[in-house]
Amino acid sequence: MSKSILWILVTILIVSFFGGCSRPNPEKRARELKRKQQQTARLPQKQKISTTDERIPVEVMPVKRGDISKYLLLSSNLETEVMADVYSRIQGIVDSIFKEEGQYVKKGDVMLTLEAKEYELAEQKARVEYEQQLRNFQRLQKMHEKKLLSDEEYEKAKYQLKAVEIAWNEAKLKLDFTKVRAPINGRVGQRLAKIGERIQPTDKLFSVVDNSQVIAVVYVPEKNMNEVKIGQKAYVTSDYFKDRKFDGWIKRISPVVDPSSGTFKVTVGVRNRGSKLRPGMFVNVHIVLDTHKNVILVPKNAVVYENENMYAYVVRDSVARKIRLHTGYEDNEKVEVLQGIEEDEPIIVVGQAGMKDQTPVRIINVRENKLANH
C-alpha cells in the first residue's frame, strides 16, 4: 500500500473520532436549560431586594407632649449675694496663716493669728488690777455694812471696781482679737496677708464669698415692665455647664427706668446647688413669662427651614411625609406644634436634610424622647 493511501485512511479515522465526541449530549443540555429557568425565576426576588436597599435610612424620635415656656432671654455676669472682706481689729505682726484661697471656712473659724505676747501681758496686768480692786472692795463693803464707811465712799469703791473690770474685759477682748476669724460661711476668695507682715486695722487680709447665694443682675426693657414681678420663675444656663439649668427667681425689681437705655434693673436669685456656679461667670438668664402645658413638642433638630417656613418629616407607612409646622412657643431645644402632627408619631431627626415629600424610608434607629420632661 502506498504511503499516500495510508495517510488518507488515518485522516478519515481522526475526523470520525472527534466528530463523534462533539455531538450534543441530551442530558447535559437538559441540565443547562433547568439552570437557566431557575435563574429566570429568581430575577423578581433579586429586583425586590434591590428596591428595599434603595430606601433612605433615617433615625426617628416619637413625638411627645410636655410643657414649654415663653421667656425673656438676657445676659449677665454672676455676682455673690453674700461677701465679706476680712480685717484685723488690732494692729500687730502676722504670726500664722491657717486658710488659703479656695478653702471653705465656717463663721468663727480662725484664719490668721497675730503675735500675742504683748496682748497676753496686758491681759495679765488688767486681771491683777481687777483682783486687787475686788479684794479692796470686799473689805470696804464689810465696813459699809457695819456703818463704818459712808455711802458716798462705798459707791466710789463700787465704780472703781467696775472700771477695772471693764479694763480687764477690754484686755481679754484684744487678746482674742489676735485670732482673726471668718465673719461668714464661704470660700476664701483672696488671701492678701503675709507671715511676718505688720498690719493695721485698715489692712484687708482676706475676702470670703458665699457661692451658695449668687445673683444675676439684668436690665429688662421697659416694654416688659408689666410682665415681670417679684418671685417669678427664671433659670440660668452657662456654656461651661452644657445641658444644665440652674433654677432661679426674681428677687428684686428696681422701680426706676434708666432714660438713657430704656431699661430697669432686675435682680435674679440663683439656686446654686453644689456651688457649681462661681461669681464672675457669664450666664444666660431666662425669665419665664408664660407656660403652655401638655402640648405637642417637636425637637429642634427635626425642623427643616424653607422660605421662612418650618417643616418636619414624619414616617407613615414607610414613607416620609412633609408637614408644615404651625407653631406656638419655642426654645433652644423644642417647638410647640399646634396642628398636623400627633402624639407618638415617629418624626425624622437624622436623614431629613434634602429629603422630598413621599420619599420611601427605612427606620434604622428610634431615639428616646427626653424633651417632654424638660
What does this structure look like?
With 374 residues, this protein is α+β, with helices and mostly antiparallel strands. It folds into 3 domains: 58-67 and 293-366, Beta Barrel (conserved putative lor/sdh protein from methanococcus maripaludis s2 fold), CATH 2.40.420; 71-80 and 211-291, Efflux pump adaptor protein, beta barrel domain (Elongation Factor Tu (Ef-tu), domain 3), CATH 2.40.30; 86-206, RNA polymerase II/Efflux pump adaptor protein, barrel-sandwich hybrid domain (OB fold (Dihydrolipoamide Acetyltransferase, E2P), Beta Barrel), CATH 2.40.50. Helices cover 27% and strands 43% of the residues. The chain is built from 4 helices and 20 strands. It has helices at 3-21, 26-53, 117-145, 151-176, and strands at 56-62, 64-87, 92-97, 104-105, 110-114, 179-181, 186-191, 198-199, 204-221, 233-237, 246-258, 263-271, 282-299, 304-306, 309-316, 319-324, 326-330, 334-339, 346-350, 359-366. It has a 6-stranded mixed β-sheet with strand order 14-15-16-20-1-19, with no helix packed on it. It has a 6-stranded antiparallel beta barrel with strand order 2-9-12-11-10-13. A hairpin with a 3-residue loop joins strand 17 (326-330) and strand 18. Helix 3 (117-145) runs antiparallel to helix 4 (151-176). It is elongated and about 150 Å long. The N and C termini lie far apart (113 Å). Residues 17-24 and 43-52 have low confidence and may be disordered.
